[in-house]
Design goal:
Layout (H helix, E strand, L loop, with lengths): L11 H15 L4 H6 L9 H16 L1 H11 L11 H14 L4 H13 L2 H4 L2 H18 L11 H11 L1 H11 L5 E5 L3 H7 L3 E4 L2 E4 L20 E3 L6 H6 L6 E5 L5 H8 L3 E6 L2 H14 L4 E4 L11 E7 L13 H5 L2 H19 L2 E11 L8 H10 L2 E3 L14 E2 L2 E4 L13 E8 L1
The structure holds S-adenosylmethionine.
């Protein structure tokens, strides 16, 4: 028997989550792109928005486990004509097992949602039967389904080979936790740590634990309006710290938007030229610099074509990458990225690095970084640069970086996935420092 009448009013949050999950998992759209399109998010109440994000986020963070549970009860895969049905089942399963909402209401609403559309209507009885099973025995069956399954096979194998088994356990742990918010503070981190009830991590970084996060909009937090800080993962703040810009140095920030690193360099008093290919992203960079009251020259150009008028004292290359290192806050990367993309990216990254080397004066510094956990985009590109480009290694000074010293080896800094698993996590990141010969 189907347990919900067809006239039940559907929760906008659950409908939104099902649409988001379909767009990401069935049509390969990123969450950011989905949010940028017409999707009804802003029309929802704050409560519905929170629920919608929680459901979609939980499906993405627990996808391996959710699908393993569903596979126990769905005898054969749903056909493509089932439309939103897969997403409805995934969202309801995630909500029942991990968000601990009342199971009866979720099952009932999922069935109503299935019944409300032509494509899914034929599957409403299946939804009812499957989700009742999930509600009755899913939690127990989950004991045999480890959280490491939430990392896709190819990444699990790659990370295991590169970093070892403990990394997989740690990455799986940080993936399913609530994420802290990290801030980079431009002056007096200790004072802002107190004002925002955060923890000073080291350098300019503060961490606001998710449980301590002040309710509501981050733009309302103390210090946002006056430009005292910017949101930036502890790891993402490191390349600019390693570059160690001097006042009045002439620095090029290639691939610069939305400008997190540009801001750090400009705050040191350096003359920064920020080069970015995307005009809409460059607009965001300009807005961010305005809020932070920092002066930079922003240029909309392709790093592969653009040439500076004078050679720079230093160049920072935050290259485009697969971003597999930022899976904690962007779990959609785990399902959207492929080994082919890693290979393609490595070629682009080397080309941008070669262009950057030609923008430097002899003796100038070059910092190359990627938020990818894949060595093909990090270590391999840097090794090739040392062989083929007029660049030598520049040893990273760890004096001001004692809090991340464990990740530094000579001219390289590598943060593996799942790092700081007991302290709220850290994005996986690779940085290499060079000097122009
Ligand atoms: C990792 S993001 C940069 C993040 C930024 N550095 C920050 O700290 O906020 C990479 C950026 O490179 C830009 N990009 C990609 N290819 C480029 C190219 N050939 N020339 C210039 N910018 C490029 C992308 O549009 C994207 O904004």
């Amino acid at each position: 028997m189907v347990c919900a009448p067809m006239h039940v009013k559907l929760s906008p949050a659950r409908v939104w989550a099902a649409n988001a999950i379909t767009a990401i998992l069935d049509h390969g759209q990123s969450m950011d792109d989905f949010l940028a399109g017409p999707n009804g998010f802003t029309a929802m109440s704050p409560r519905d928005r929170a629920l919608a994000r929680a459901i979609a986020g939980t499906v993405l963070r627990r996808l391996g486990q959710v699908d393993a549970i569903l596979a126990l009860y769905v005898a054969k895969p749903l056909p493509p004509k089932a439309g939103l049905m897969r997403a409805i089942l995934r969202c309801a399963t995630a909500e029942i097992l991990f968000l601990r909402s009342p199971a009866f209401a979720i099952v009932s609403e999922a069935v109503s949602m299935a019944a409300s559309k032509g494509k899914t209507r034929a599957f409403r009885h299946l939804a009812n039967a499957v989700l009742r099973k999930v509600a009755a025995e899913g939690a127990e069956r989950l004991n045999d389904i480890p959280a490491t399954l939430n990392i896709p096979d190819w990444l699990r194998q790659n990370w295991q080979k590169t970093y070892g088994e403990a990394t997989i356990e740690n990455a799986a742990k940080v993936l399913i936790e609530d994420q802290p918010t990290d801030l980079t503070v431009f002056r007096d981190p200790a004072i802002w740590a107190e004002k925002l009830s955060g923890t000073a991590i080291g350098g300019p970084s503060l961490r606001i634990a998710s449980a301590d996060r002040q309710a509501g909009d981050i733009t309302k937090w103390a210090g946002f309006e006056e430009g005292a800080w910017q949101v930036q993962d502890v790891a993402a703040a490191l390349p600019a710290l390693i570059l160690n810009a001097g006042a009045d140095e002439n620095i090029i920030d290639l691939c610069a938007a939305p400008g997190g690193k540009t801001a750090q360099l400009a705050a040191c008093g350096a003359k920064v030229t920020a080069v970015e290919r995307s005009s809409s992203r460059l607009e965001r960079l300009d807005q961010n610099m305005k809020r932070l009251d920092l002066k930079v020259q922003s240029v909309c150009a392709d790093a592969l074509q653009w040439k500076p008028e004078t050679l720079a004292d230093a160049v920072l290359v935050d290259a485009p990458c697969t971003a597999t290192g930022v899976f904690r806050r962007h779990p959609d990367v785990l399902v959207l990225k492929t080994p082919d993309q890693v290979r393609d990216m490595a070629n682009t990254q080397f080309a941008i690095l070669a262009a950057a080397a030609n923008m430097l004066r002899p003796g100038g510094r070059l910092i190359y970084c990627v938020c990818s956990a894949q060595t093909e985009e990090g270590e391999d590109v840097a090794r090739r640069a040392l062989k083929e480009l007029p660049l030598g290694p520049l040893i990273i000074e760890t004096g001001a970086l004692s809090y991340v010293q464990a990740f530094v080896k000579a001219h390289e800094l590598r943060i593996p996935p799942g790092a700081w698993a007991d302290k709220g996590g850290l994005d996986a990141f690779y940085i290499s420092a060079f000097t122009r010969q």
